[in-house]
Amino acid sequence: MDWQDLHYFCVLARLGSLSAAARELGVDHATVGRRVAALEKSLSLRLLDRLPRRALLTPQGRVIASLAADMEVAAGSIGRRAREIGGAAEVRVSAPPALAARLIAPHVGDFHVAHPDITLVLSGASGPAALDQGEADVALRMSPPGDPDLVARKVGTVRFGLYGAASMKDLDPDHWAFVGYDPALDHVTSQRWLRTLLAGRPLVFQASDLFAQQEAARAGLGAVVLPTIIGDADSGLVRLPVPLAPPTRDLWLAVYPDLRKSVSVADVLDFIVGVVGRTCPLHPVGDAVS
């Protein structure tokens, strides 16, 4: 049995389709198919029922997938342990794009001065990074992680406000227009709050990217909901009065306990906790919206 064939089968079993597995593995779907076929031949078992859009596990496939999943977890633990005992000087951090760009990135210069031997790799990911798959060592998230094996800590709170170009303050609020997320992101907390403000007023521009919304608001297109750490720092925008209290989102820092023992990772954790605590504290004083 080729261990690499088993790895490809693990990913396919977890994701449920050749195309999804191919994207994660960085290969074409035919390569995934060949690898799994080779595994089936070496084990003398049929592991998959191949359908046009999905790959369903056979009963035998479910048994092998369960055993292989344990091996995948063990491989991840080995990788994390190797970075710990090897004193790896590269630490990968995942955070939502806006927080990566406007909360963490402005302070990495100070971190580099304090820790010149550590390379910080910052990924602005719209979805949660799979720490168990090695996509990141540390994750800053806007919801508590569901993996019980992770050590998670609430480190701060993101607050939101409604912002617009200065000219909007001269308009009757009944004539305001708004910009927001596209319909695929209607579930986002800030978007749900925005829709409670519309009261029949138009949403004239939608984008999946928060920075595109910010630029549209700067151009005077309409009001936008932004984290206060972004909106308050933008001289081209002013905070607008709102009848409803803006939402908040807690920030969670997550890491695997074995990797937390690494000196480099511990230094990065301390850095992020410090930045978040100063910029997005859990219990700020006088956080009123004018």
CATH homologous superfamily annotation of the largest domain: Periplasmic binding protein-like II
Which regions have little confidence, pLDDT < 50, spanning 5+ residues?
286-290
Q: Give the N-to-C terminal Cα separation.
A: 66 Å
Beta content: 15-25%
Mean pLDDT: 87
CATH topology of the largest domain: D-Maltodextrin-Binding Protein, domain 2
Specify the helix fraction band. Answer: 40-55%
Q: Which terms summarize this structure?
A:
alpha/beta; D-Maltodextrin-Binding Protein, domain 2; 290 residues; single chain; two-stranded antiparallel ribbon; 7-stranded mixed sheet; Arc Repressor Mutant, subunit A
Quick summary of this structure?
The chain has helices at residues 3-15, 18-25, 29-43, 59-85, 97-104, 108-114, 189-198, 210-218, 228-231, 257-260, 263-279; strands at residues 48-50, 55-57, 90-95, 119-124, 138-141, 151-164, 178-180, 203-206, 224-227, 238-239, 248-255. The protein has 290 residues and is of the alpha/beta class. Strands 3, 4, 5, 6, 9, 10 and 11 form a 7-stranded mixed sheet that branches.
Overview of the structural elements:
With 290 residues, this protein is an alpha/beta fold. The protein has three domains: 3-84, Winged helix-like DNA-binding domain superfamily/Winged helix DNA-binding domain (Arc Repressor Mutant, subunit A, Orthogonal Bundle), CATH 1.10.10; 87-149 and 249-279, D-Maltodextrin-Binding Protein, domain 2 (3-Layer(aba) Sandwich); 158-248, 3-Layer(aba) Sandwich (D-Maltodextrin-Binding Protein, domain 2). The protein is 42% helix and 20% strand. The chain is built from eleven helices and eleven strands. The chain has helices spanning 3-15, 18-25, 29-43, 59-85, 97-104, 108-114, 189-198, 210-218, 228-231, 257-260, 263-279; strands at 48-50, 55-57, 90-95, 119-124, 138-141, 151-164, 178-180, 203-206, 224-227, 238-239, 248-255. Strand 7 (178-180), helix 7 and strand 8 form a beta-alpha-beta unit. It is globular, with a radius of gyration of 23 Å. Mean pLDDT is 87; it is low at 286-290.
